[in-house]
Amino acid sequence: MPPVTTKESKEDEQQQEQKPSSSVPKDRRFKLSRACDRCRRRRIKCDEGHPCQSCLTSNSACTFEEPGKRTHPHKSKRAATLEDRMHHLETLIQAIPPAVFAAGVNFKGAGGGPQSPADPSTSAHASFASSTHTYPPGVPPPSLSNYPLMNPSTFFAPTKPSSRHSSPHGGYSMHIPANPTMSPDQLADEASRMSLAASYLYFDDEGYTRWQGETSGLPLLDLLVERHKVVTKQDPDGPLQQQNILAMDHPSVNDWFPDRTARRTGNNPEVIWKLVTSFIAPDLMDSLVQCYLSTSYYLMPFLHVPSFLADYGNPQKWGEPGFAAFIVSICCLASRHIDDPRVRADPADGNSAGTVWFDLFGRLRSLPTADRPTVYTVQSVLIAGVYAIGLGKLSKAFALISEAITLSIDGGLHRSSDAYDVFDSIEDEVRKRTFWCVYLWDKQACVHFGRPPMIRLRDCDVGEPAIVDDEYITRDGISLQPPEQESRMSAFVDCVRLFVVMEAILDVPPSRHFGDGSPFLTRATSILTGFRRHKELREEEALLDEISRSIPPHWAHSVETMASDDVIRVTQAERLYCLEQFIRMLIHRHRFSEIVAEKVFTQANYEDQGDAECEAMRVAHACALQIVSSHLQIAAKGLMTYYGVHVIHQLTAAGRTLVAVLLNCHSEQLRPLISPALDALRSCVGLLRRFSGRYVCGLRSGDLMEEFCRSTPINHSKPVYSNLFFFSC
Predict the structure, then answer these.
(1) How confident is the model at residue 531, as a pLDDT?
(2) Tens of pLDDT along 274-294?
(3) Can you tell me where the transmembrane regions are (predicted)?
(4) What CA–CA distance (Å, rounded) separates 689 from 86?
(5) Which residues have C-beta within 8 Å of that of residue 319, sequence separation ≥ 6?
C-alpha cells in the first residue's frame, strides 16, 4: 500500500523546492544518520566523532556496525542533501592518510617486493608528488593552432561536396607480387588464399563501404565471374623480367548490377544545424569541441585533427547525421569538464551535464541515413556509449558500444584494407584508430562488469595505427616522424597492446554444466569452443612484461618523466602505468581466486596458505595500492580532466581486490598487508566520492565500497571473515 502523503508534507516539499540553490537547504529529514551504535540504542545525541564524546566519557566502545533503523523506507532513495554529501566527502578526503600519496610499495614485475619511496630522485611517485609545476587544464593539439576552429554558423550556401569521401566510389585493385623463391605450387596456394580471403570490401547501392565475410559467398562469386586474371608486368627500373601479378580490374558499384545507379538519400544541412544549435549555442559548441580536443581526445585519438576541423567548418558536412551526432556526442562528453551552467539540465546538479544533449543525440540517430556505417557514425556511437557509462545508464551504454562494434564490422574497420586501393592515407589511419578505440572500450567495459567481450582479436586483421602525428599525414601519404619528437600516437599504440593482453584475461573457460544437463551441449562445447588458456596466465604475464619493457622512455613511468612539466607526457605515462598495474592485478587476483575456489571445492583448511597463494595476494595487493596511489596524486595535481570514467573502473577493481585480500589474510606472513590495505580502501572511497560530482557511477561505486567496509568487521588483531556479495555499480 503506498504511503499516505498529507497536505502539509506536500506544502513542505513545494517550499523546499522553491528555495534558491545558493541557500543550501539543510533538510534534516533526509540527513544520513552517523550516530554510533551506543548513542543510537540509548537515543541520545551523538557528536559523530570517532570515538564520540559520550562514549569517551563513559569509557565505552564506540562502534558504527549496527544497521540504522529507517522510519521511512520509501524515502531511502533520496539518500542525502547536497550539503550532507559534501560534508561526508570532506570528512573522507581529510581522513586519507598522507603516506598513501607516496605509496609504500614500488612493485616492478612479478618478483618485486615492498620498498619505501622517500627519495624523489629514485621514486617516480615521490618525484611527481614533489614537483611544483603548474599544469594547464587542457592542451590543444598542435593542429589546432594551424587550423581555425570555426563552425559554419556564418554561412550556409550550397558548396561542392568535399573530396574526402570520393575515393570509395573509385576503383580498387589488389596486387600480389610474386616471390621469386616460391615454387609454382606455393604461388598457386598463396594466390588462392588471397583470392578467397575472409575479408571482402564492397560498395552498397548508396556507395558506402561495406564488409562481408567468406561465408557470405561474395569472395567465391568474385572469383567465378572472372574478375581475376594473370597479367605480365615489366619492371621499368630493373632488368626485364616476368612477374605474375594477380590483379583485380577496377570495378564500380554497378559492375554486377549494370542497371543500378548509386544514389544517396540527402538531408538538408541547414535543418540539422538549426536543430543542433537550438539545443547547443554555436559559441558553447566551439568551447566544448576545443575542450574535447584538449583533454579527452588524448584518450581516444581517432581523429585526424586537420581533416576534422575542415569538416567542422564545412556547411555541407552537417547534412550527414553521423557527423552531427558526433559533434553532439563530444559535447556531451566535454560537458563534464566545463563549468558553464548552460551544459547542465539542472544548474545545481553536476551529474545533469549533457543529459539534454544525450536525448538530442537519440533524435539525430533516428534521421534518414543515420545508420550508415560511416566512420563519424562509429565514432559518435562510441563516444555516446562512454558518456552513458559515466551517466550510470549501463544498459544503454552497452547497447551503444555493441552498436559501435556492429557498425565497425559492417564498414570493415576490423579488417585490413591494404589489399584494396580504396582509401587515402588519412582515411586509412582514421579507420584504424577508430577501430582500436572501439576495441579497447569493449575490453574496458567488459572487464569491469565481468562480461564476455563482443569482439576478439582473432576476428580482426587490421594493423596498428602508424606512430606518426597528424601534422605528418596527408592524403598523399605518411611522412616520417621527426626523430627528436616523440609521437603522441606511440602512447596510444602501447595502450592498445595492453588491452590485447586484457582480452586474454576476459577469455574465461566456457561452462561445462548446463541447466538441463544436455549431453549434446556438453559434448559440443568440448569440441567446438577451441578454448585454450593456461590456468595461471603465465604467457599473458610474460607478454605484459614485454610490452612494459618496450614502452619508449618518453612515456615510461620514471623519475624523469614524472618530473616533467609536459602535462601530456605525465598524464599519458601515468595512464599506461595504471593500466599495466590494473592488468597485472587481475592476473594475480585470478591466481589466488583459483586457489581459494579449489579449497572450497575440496573442503580444505582455508588457513593453510602456501607460497603461491601468498605471493599472488602480495602482488595483487601491491598493484592495487599503486593504482590508488597514482590516481590520488593525479587528483591532487588537478589533472583528472585528462582522464575519464575508466579511472572509476580501476579504483573500484582495486578496492574489491583489497577487500578480497583482507578477507583472505589468514597466515601470519600476510598480516603486514592489512594496515596499508585499510588505508588504501579509505582513500579509494574518498576518490570515488570525489568523482560523484560529475559521474553517477562514481557515487554508486563509492557507496558500494563503503558498504563493503561496513559489512566486513576487519581489525588489525583478529580478522573476521564474512560473506560479501559483489554487485556492479
Answers:
(1) 56
(2) 999 999 999 999 999 999 999
(3) none
(4) 9
(5) 266, 267, 268, 269, 272
